[in-house]
Design brief:
Largest sheet of chain A: 6 strands, parallel
Low-confidence stretches of chain A: 425-431
Strand content of chain A: 5-15%
Mean pLDDT of chain A: 85
Number of domains of chain B: 2
Shape of chain A: elongated
Distance between the termini of chain B: 23 Å
CATH topology of the largest domain in chain A: Beta Polymerase, domain 2
Shape of chain B: globular
Mean pLDDT of chain B: 84
Order of helices and strands of chain A: EHHEEHHEHHHHEHEHEHEHEEHHHH
Number of strands of chain A: 10
Number of strands of chain B: 0
CATH class of the largest domain in chain A: Alpha Beta
Helix content of chain B: over 70%
CATH superfamily of the largest domain in chain A: Glutamyl-tRNA reductase, N-terminal domain
Structural class of chain A: alpha/beta
Number of helices of chain A: 16
Oligomer: heterodimer
């Protein structure tokens, strides 16, 4: 293998957000960067993936080591950084590994929230940019298209995307176990922190009809209520509004419990024991744990929600194994195609095929020519060889001429198809 | 032939049971759809069996204990299919299907030991099919309420247990089950009331006054009726719901089962002896 695919990058696991935000490519900066990427010596094709969780550069070239050596510098220079600033966070994948990584990213197996659907859309957009800029060529076109279809297979053939994996979505999933419909339900958000806000958003996404927002600083409650489309309630009126709430998100800490058992008992009496779901996101906890013992009250704290998430992750592990198997098979298929693109074996195969035809035709027709003497026979041999060689000269020299440049993959594939040399796993699938 | 169809129905209820349990344990779309499909086919076979049997008897086949069990099982799955069609409650099949399976198997075993008996001439009236249909339909609806209540208690326990429970099961929400319980209790009570009323009118026509007033079946029915009236009253006035409603529903259904099995197996009273 004297050519290959290389992928370098960093993601949420290898780099903190301070580093990721430094190397991200905002809108409008991707296209010029793509042009500069394929201008790098030795880089025939390239594409860049940049999301809030990852920045990755994938490139093809005749000398993978050289390409792999240039990409980190490229990424650093694009953002005016020294090489050393990002080097410790970078991973490098070559060949099959690079393809597998790209497939896993597309299938959302490498995501922070495994199975989340946004990554595929982002990948498609950024591939479209690379294609439009002329940076993606024959190999990357195919590679990305395969990645998209792998993602689709993983989505439809495994349950990877079916379960909740954030605190907010776990709370929403639990709420669905308790309540049937949400339009007639009221949620009460206590506190103005991010976790509480995200959870409230998840509940609103379920269709919760009314949202009340309570905060010690009333102005903050007003702001947040406006953002979320809820109603602000003064902190002093918390006890009064509690009976209205079917779902309560506790996201504010205090000395002692914000809501003790007596308050909840009183609220339950007032709401005629309609079920109440309390979500305690605060540390230290906002709700007295004993209230879970009350009839019709369901209290979950952060650790309980984490347990739900862990359960879902467990269920996901089995699905992920299925997904990895799909990806492995697709990487194999892609790699068979990719290896067939090599120039030297293609030329060898081409010559062998021509020689094979020549020999067969000779054997067939020598009989008809009658008794040739050795000299005549040699002349026929020379004649046929000359024809074959002259015919092959064009294609072979074109292959050699384009070896190691952007046209290589195109010519190799064309030759393989025109002369039926095999090696394409999807013969006939693509024009 | 009727027996064979009944055995076929029993196997389909078994399949539905397994599908419903699988559907609760793992999140896949196929089992819940299979539940209603199995029950549909089973109920079809079951209906044909009852029709054939009724044709032989020349009247609706509920007079013997075996026929009664079979009829009740059929009405239960029929009511389940109606509810399941309107809202996706395949998980309810996890209780309904084994219940129907148990009743059907009991009917099959019982058939072997029963002779076909025509209705005594004194009881042969138009009231007979009306009374038994109303009464058994009421029982079937209470059986559905019982199934919803059982699932409710199970789901509630899991939600209360939080971390310790493991939360990978796929059950209807508490609210869904509680609403279903309420609707079933209302309808069951209406039918039970009509069943008792038609029974009294019919008995009065057949035997005259008072002879039937201490019939154990009637006594049990009135106990059942009282339990569900109390439950309904509590729900409307005192806001009883959830666990309390589920527990009372189960208690009411236990009385129904005792009356069904006790009266017929021990052959006591008019419902036990006459048929």
């Amino acid at each position: 293998m004297d050519r290959g695919v290389v992928l370098i990058g960093l993601n949420h696991r290898t780099a903190p957000v301070e580093v990721r935000e430094c190397v991200a490519f905002p809108n409008g900066r991707l296209e010029p960067a793509l042009v500069r990427l394929v201008e790098l010596p030795g880089v025939a094709e390239g594409a860049i993936l940049s999301t809030c969780n990852r920045v990755e550069v994938v490139a093809c070239g005749s000398d993978p080591d050289a390409v792999a050596g240039r990409l980190p510098g490229f990424l650093a220079r694009e953002h005016g950084l020294g090489d050393g600033a990002i080097a410790p966070h970078l991973y490098t994948h070559r060949g099959r590994e690079a393809v597998r990584h790209l497939f896993r990213v597309a299938a959302s197996l490498d995501s922070m929230v495994v199975g989340e659907p946004q990554i595929l859309g982002q990948l498609k957009e950024q591939y479209a940019l690379a294609a439009a800029a002329g940076a993606a060529g024959r190999v990357l076109h195919r590679c990305f298209h395969r990645a998209f279809s792998v993602a689709k297979r993983v989505r439809t053939e495994t349950g990877i995307a079916a379960k909740a994996v954030s605190v907010g979505s776990a709370a929403a999933e639990l709420a669905r176990q308790i309540f049937d419909r949400f339009e007639d339900k009221t949620a009460l958000l206590i506190g103005a922190g991010t976790m509480g806000e995200l959870t409230a958003r998840q509940l609103l996404a379920q269709g919760v009809g009314t949202l009340l927002v309570v905060n010690r600083t009333f102005e903050r409650a007003i702001d947040l209520a406006r953002d979320l489309g809820g109603m602000p309630v003064p902190f002093e009126r918390l006890a009064r509004s509690l009976p209205l709430a079917d779902l309560v998100i506790g996201a504010a800490s205090s000395d002692g419990f914000l809501l003790g058992a007596p308050a909840v008992v009183e609220a339950m009496r007032e709401r005629r024991r309609r079920p109440m779901f309390l979500i305690d996101l605060a540390v230290p906890r906002a709700f007295e744990p004993q209230v879970n013992g009350l009839d019709g009250v369901y209290l979950y704290d952060v650790d309980d929600l984490e347990a739900v998430i862990a359960d879902n992750r467990g269920a996901r592990a089995a699905e992920a194994a299925k997904a990895e198997a799909i990806i492995e098979a697709e990487v194999d298929a892609f790699w068979r195609w990719f290896e067939s693109l090599d120039v030297v074996p293609t030329i060898v195969a081409l010559r062998e095929r021509a020689e094979d035809i020549r020999q067969r035709e000779l054997a067939r027709h020598l009989g008809a020519l009658g008794g040739l003497d050795a000299r005549q026979r040699e002349a026929v041999e020379r004649l046929t060889s000359a024809i074959v060689n002259k015919l092959l000269h064009g294609p072979v020299s074109a292959l050699k001429r384009h070896q190691a440049d952007a046209g290589e993959a195109f010519y190799v594939e064309a030759a393989r198809r025109l002369f039926r040399l095999g090696g394409d796993p999807d013969d006939g699938e693509e024009g | 032939m009727e027996q064979l169809l009944l055995v076929g129905a029993a196997f389909l209820y078994l399949a539905a049971t397994l599908a419903a349990w699988t559907g609760i344990a793992v999140r896949v779309d196929a089992p819940p759809r299979l539940v209603s499909r199995f029950v549909w086919i089973g109920a079809g076979a079951h209906l044909v069996s009852i029709v054939l049997r009724s044709a032989v008897l020349g009247d609706i086949a509920v007079a013997t204990f075996a026929d009664a069990l079979s009829f009740l099982a059929f009405l239960l799955v029929a009511v389940f299919l109606v509810v399941e069609r309107r809202r996706s409650l395949a998980a309810l099949g996890a209780v309904v299907s084994p219940l129907a399976l148990g009743l059907t198997v009991a009917a099959i075993l019982r058939y072997a030991r029963e002779a076909v008996r025509p209705l005594p001439p004194v009881l042969d009236s138009a009231w007979f099919p009306v009374h038994v249909t109303l009464a058994f339909l009421g029982d079937a609806i209470f059986a559905l309420a019982f199934s919803a209540s059982l699932l409710y208690l199970f789901q509630e326990r899991r939600l209360k247990a939080r971390r310790r429970a493991g939360l990978l099961l796929h059950l209807p929400s508490l609210e869904t089950l509680d609403r279903l319980n309420h609707a079933c209790v209302v309808w069951g009570l209406v039918l039970l009331t009509l069943g008792i009323a038609t029974g009294i009118v019919w008995a009065h026509e057949a035997w005259g006054r008072a002879y039937w007033a201490s019939d154990p079946k009637l006594v049990f029915s009135l106990i059942t009726w009282a339990i569900y009236v109390v439950l309904l009253q509590g729900r409307m006035v005192a806001g009883w719901r959830g666990r309390r409603a589920a527990t009372l529903t189960i208690a009411g259904f236990a009385v129904i089962l005792v009356s069904l099995v006790g009266v017929n197996v021990l052959a006591i009273g008019l419902h036990g002896k006459a048929f």
